[in-house]
Design goal:
The complex is a heterodimer of chains A (311) and B (209).
Chain A: H1 17-39, H2 41-64, H3 75-85, H4 93-109, H5 121-132, H6 134-137, E1 140-142, E2 153-155, H7 167-172, H8 184-196, H9 203-218, H10 223-228, H11 232-239, H12 250-270, H13 277-294
Antiparallel strand pairs in A: 1-2
Chain B: H1 7-15, H2 28-33, H3 38-61, H4 71-93, H5 95-101, H6 112-120, H7 127-157, E1 159-160, E2 163-164, H8 179-208
Antiparallel strand pairs in B: 1-2
Helix pairs in contact in B: 1-7, 3-4, 3-6, 3-7, 4-5, 4-6
Chain lengths: 311, 209
């Protein structure tokens, strides 16, 4: 008889990295479709280039370092797609390729691969691109749709021209912005799917949006427009919730999400950039280990508040 | 005390096996701050190496006179004197370079590479050995600083020593010449140096086995 001995817990969950990442990809479909409908085929090409680079870079890196090739866990596809959705629709393709390769090799691979990266790879890549090639990263174009006679119409980001777009336009995405962030309806559909499949909990998205709302209001901006412009909603659903780089406990996640909202409001209202979502998330990513240290999970088998040795 | 090494071994080890920047991670602050071009890296490397050499010789000569407790103050006074001298020479000879290195020229006085070599080596060895160690370490630092500067200049401007290397259409990675980019480049170079060293020592073990 073949007996298999293993310590508790014995309940097996069907959640695997592949399943979770597949859920995220499904949740991103509305954003992808909205991005292509609004900005045309150049947005589709951008996503294709970014995803392909991420997957190829992951494969080459894992082969070169003698690790097991885990491209099948789909995490590289998610990183590549999220990066592309964070780029301006008219960004040159090489920008997506460079950013994607940087995210996978430098931010993820060099730190030990999925689970060991200390900041969100897509966000770090966006920060690199923004710092290195600002003239491509800050060119916004108005949505022209699929069957437009012109390639692009340049326009200012709504963050610089508050009040020029109605709330309805901001909600449906008929505004200049990054490929994936403009259509709030699509993001909410994705959020619903992620909540329904228990891929993420409501905590981080809800607290982050609420915090942005409250702090931009306190700092004297229109809070509703602030939440609906720029990348707040997209980041709240798809980037701040990254398992690897957010705190593990509920209180930690509350502080983390509230902190992101505060930093976004600070950068937008007092900083030199119109948008601050990228830096807000990177900053709080770095704070996540500290939050995990402050808000420790109760160790199984110990009373609440009991001192754990070697904790 | 560590085993006695020959002069030649001291020279070589500073250059490769114990490269101050890439293997011992000494003198990181100027390496991150001023190596935005290969020329700046070279200039800073030479200035630091000269101060290191002079400080090491003087510390070695005075090694029996220096008190055990206050030795770091003595090292600082000696290196500060030579750093001031280096600043004057640079200002008169290469005013443009001196201006672009800025505050980091007087800060050579507190460069941890110099204090480390004074304490760990010069204070316990003869002047001849101290010279060999300082020359090896200094050359190693110059090479590493120039390399860091060259990589950052290549990425950040497409040139090396002001000569265009990459095609004119190249879109420079501005991040490479920012401090964050310096940290990334130095980190990657340290990683490469470690990989080479690991492979090298692995081979040696294989040969002796």
């Amino acid at each position: 008889m073949n007996l298999h001995l293993s310590p508790a817990p014995h309940v097996h969950s069907n959640q695997s990295t592949r399943v979770l990442m597949r859920n995220v990809l499904v949740a991103l479909i509305p954003c992808v479709v909205a991005g292509i409908c609004l900005f045309g085929y150049s947005a589709a090409l951008l996503m294709l280039a970014s995803v392909l680079t991420a997957v190829v870079a992951e494969y080459i890196w894992q082969r070169a370092t003698g690790n097991k090739v885990r491209v099948g866990d789909l995490s590289a596809v998610v990183t590549g797609l999220i990066l592309a959705l964070n780029l301006p629709p008219q960004a040159p393709l090489w920008l997506a390729v460079v950013g994607s390769a940087f995210a996978i090799v430098i931010v993820k691979g060099l730190f030990g691969g999925l689970g060991d990266n200390f900041i969100n790879p897509a966000m770090a890549a966006r920060a690199l691109l923004l710092a290195s090639w600002p003239r491509y990263m800050t060119v916004w174009t108005a949505p022209t749709g699929l069957n437009s006679s012109v390639d692009a119409v340049s326009a200012a980001t709504p963050l610089l021209t508050p009040g020029s777009y109605s709330l309805g336009q901001l909600f449906l995405g008929n505004i200049p912005g990054s490929v994936g962030e403009v259509c709030k309806l699509a993001i909410l559909l994705g959020l619903a799917y992620l909540l329904f499949t228990h891929t993420i909990t409501w905590r981080i998205p809800a607290v982050m949006v609420a915090s942005t709302f409250v702090f931009t209001w306190l700092f004297g901006k229109n809070p509703l427009t602030s939440v609906l412009s720029g990348g707040v909603l997209f980041a709240a659903v798809f980037m701040a919730t990254d398992y690897v780089t957010c705190p593990m406990t509920a209180p930690g996640q509350f502080v983390y999400a509230a902190g992101i909202g505060l930093v976004i409001a600070l950068i937008r209202c007092f900083g030199g950039y119109p948008e601050g979502v990228t830096y807000a998330i990177l900053l709080m990513n770095i704070a996540a280990p500290l939050l995990d240290h402050v808000f420790k999970r109760r160790v199984y088998g110990y009373e609440k508040g009991a001192k754990v040795q070697n904790g | 005390m560590a085993e006695k090494k020959s002069m030649g071994a001291l020279l070589i080890s500073g250059l490769l096996k114990e490269n101050p920047l890439l293997r011992l991670a000494l003198g990181l602050c100027p390496a991150l701050a001023v190596t935005t071009t290969a020329f700046n890296g070279l200039g800073m490397g030479i200035a630091t190496a000269c101060v290191l050499l002079c400080t090491s010789v003087v510390v070695s000569l005075l090694r029996d006179l220096l008190p055990e407790k206050g030795r770091f103050v003595a090292f600082l006074v000696i290196s500060a004197a030579f750093a001031t001298l280096a600043q004057m020479v640079l200002k008169g000879w290469q005013p443009a370079l001196c201006a672009s290195l800025g505050i980091f020229v007087p800060l050579i006085a507190v460069n941890c590479l110099i204090l480390n070599r004074a304490d760990a080596f010069a204070a316990q060895n003869s002047p001849a050995a101290a010279i060999a160690d300082a020359v090896g370490m200094g050359l190693g630092y110059i090479v590493a600083m120039t390399l860091t500067g060259a990589v950052r200049e290549l990425l950040g401007a497409g040139t090396v020593f002001g000569q265009r290397v990459l095609a004119a259409g190249y879109q420079p990675v501005l991040l490479a010449v920012m401090p964050a980019g310096g940290l990334l480049v130095v980190g990657l170079l340290i990683g490469i140096a470690n990989a080479i060293a690991a492979r090298h020592s692995g081979k040696k073990e294989g040969e002796s086995a």
